[in-house]
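Table S7 (text form). Paired inputs.
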Amino acid sequence: MIFLKLHILIRLVVDGLPARRDSELFIKDLHFDEVPVRIYLPRVPSASKRRGVIFFHGGCGMFGSIRSHERICRYIARTSDSVVVSVGYHLSPEHKYPAQTLDCLTATVHFLKTAENYGVDPDRIIVCGDSVGGTYTASVCQELVNRRDIPKIRAQVLIYPFLQALNFNLPSHQKNAFIAFLSQERAVLFTLKYLNKDCSMKGAILAGSHVPESINLKYKKWINPDLIPETFKLGYKPPLPTSFSPQVHEATKELFETRFSPLLAEDAVFCRLPDTCIITCEHDVLRDEGFLYKKRLEDNNVKVTWHHMEEGFHCALGFFGYGIFSFPSSSKMLNHTVNFIKAY
C-alpha cells in the first residue's frame, strides 16, 4: 500500500508542468491500435516526405508519460523537422509486463505501416528512447529484424538505456551505488516492482544469486567487467562469490528474456540491427550497459555513434526545458540526439 501511494506520487512529480502552446507544431492525440500516442507535426509545409521519429519515454515502466517528455518531443520535432510520435504505453503495475514492450511494438508497427498518412517516408523512421524507453527501443528493433512485411527501421537512439539484469555489480554499479535518482539498490528494487515480484529478493539479485553458473558461463563473453575500458574501472572490486538460489532464479525468469535484457540477444540478431546512437552518462549505474551494447553492435559490424556525458547522470534528460532547473547535460544529450536524427 505504501509503495502504491508512493508510485502515484512519483508519477505526479515526473509528469511535470504542462508545456505552453507551440505555434510551430500541429499536435494531435490518437490511438495506434488502442495504444495512446501523441503526434507532433511541423506546421511549415515540406516539399518532400519527412523523416519519422518514434519516442518511448523512460520511467522504469511504472512512471513517466507523454506529458513528462512533452518538451523533449517538441524539441526533436522542431529542430530536426521530423514528425514525432510519442508513445503512451500502459504502465506497470496496473498493466503487467510485458504489456509495455508490446504496446511499443504495436505502435511502431502501426506507424511503419501508415507513415505516409502523416507525410512521413516509411524508409526514414528512427526509434528513440531514454532509460527503460531505451530498453523498449532495443527490444522493438530486435523483434522486427526478421519482419519482411513492413519497412525496416532506419536507426535507433538509446539514451542511458537499461539493457541487462544478470549483473548488478559492474564497475558503474559500484561507482554510482549511492547516486541520486537511480542508485544500485533502487535499480534492483524498481526492477522487482516493475515485474510485480517480491522485493525481499533484492539482496539475492544484487549478489547475483539469481543466475545459475551455466548462464553466467554462457553470457560471460558479453557481460563481463573485463570488457569495460580500464579508464572506467578505477576503484572497481570484483564481487565476492555467491551461492546460486534456484528459488530466486525460478521467481525471476523474466530477467533472462531478451525482451527484458536485450544485451542477451544472439549475434544473428545483433548483426541485423540498424545504425545506432548510444548516449551514456558517467554518473549512472547503467553506464556500463551502454558500453557493452556498443561493443556488441561494433563486433557485429553495426555502425555506432557514441556520446559520453562526463557530467551527465541518469534522468538528466527529464529536466530538459525547465529553464534554471535544467542541466547542461540535458541539452547536450538532446542535441546529440537531434544531430544524429538529422543525418537520416
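Next pair, protein 2 of 2.
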Amino acid sequence: HEFALCSVISLSITSVGQSTFEKAQGEKVTLPCTFVLSEEDEGPLDIEWVLIPADNQKKEQIIIMYAVDRIYNHYYAAMTGRMQFTNPDPRSGDGSLDILNLKSADTGTYQCKVKKAPGVQSQKIQLTVLVKPARTKCSIEGSQEIGKDVILKCASQEGSPLLSYDWRRVSGTQELPATSMLNKNTGELLLKNASQDYSGTYNCVASNRVGTDECSVQLNVTPPINTAGIIAGAIIGTLLGLCVLGFLIFCCCKKHREKKYEKEVHHDIREDVPPPKSRSSTARSYIGSNRSSLGSMSPSNMEGYTKTPYSQVPSEDFERTPAQNPTFAPSKVAAPNLSRMGAVPVMIPAQSKDGSIV
C-alpha cells in the first residue's frame, strides 16, 4: 500500500481547471497538460496525446508523443504541420499541446497521458470547433406594394448551429414597424399590411457562439401598379409592331416583283415584229430593183446611156418629186468584169439635173 500511495503522490497532473474548449475555425487552441514529478519517479518519461473517437468501437488515435528524449508527431496525418508541444522540452513539466488553424473536423475528445514509472496519470479535454457565420444573404419575398405583406429573409451559407438572426432598421426611425414579426431561428421578418412608411434600409445580424456576420436590404413600398394599363399598352404595342412588319414585307415583295418584271422585259425578243429598216438596206433594195430592170435591156438600147454610174446611193426618200430631189454629180466608177461572171456587161444609167434617167 505504501508503494501504491507513493506512486500516486509522486506523479500528478496539475492542469485540472478547464476541461472544455470552444474555438472558432481557423483559430489556435492550447490544450493544457502540466505535471509534477518527484524523486520516486525513476523510469523514463513518456508523454502521449491521443484522440478518443466518438464511436467506442474504434481505437484511440495517437497524435503526438514524447519518448526517450524525442518527439514523434507523424502518427496523425490530418494534423501534420498543425500541432506541436507548447514547450519544446516537455521534461520541464509542461506537456501541453498546441493545435493551429483549427478545422471543424478537429472537434473531439483529447487525452493527455504522462508516464514515469512507477507513476501514470491522464486527463481528458473536450474540444469543439465552431464555424463563424459567413456568406450571409438578405432578400425580399412578396410584392412591395401598399397593403401587401412583405417578408424580409436572412440566411447564412456557413456557420455552426445554433445560429440566431436579428433584424434592425438602420434608416428613418431605426425601429421595426409595429406590425412586424421576427423569427430568430429562421431569420424571417414579416411586415404585415405594408405602408410607404416601412420603406428604408434593414440590416440582419447572424450570430453563434464564436462570431457574427451581417447583410442589408433596401425596402421600397410603392402604390399598386395599374396592371390593366400595362396589358393594354403591351397589346397596342404588339399590334403596331405587326403592322410595321407587314408594311415592310409588302414593300420588299413589291420591289422584288418590279425588278423581276424589268428583267423579263429586257430579255424578251418578239418574233412577230420585223426589225426596223435602215438607210443602207433601203438603198440596196432600190439598186437591186433597177439592176433587174436593166438586165432585160438589149445592148442596142443601152447605147444612149452614159457610162458614169451613180456617185451616191438614194435614201429612203427616193420617191420625192423631181423638184425636191437633189442633183448628184457624176463620178467615174470602174465597171465590174462581167465576162467572168458569164453575163453581158451593162451600163448603169445616170440621173440628169431635171431628175430624168438618161
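The mean pLDDT is 79.
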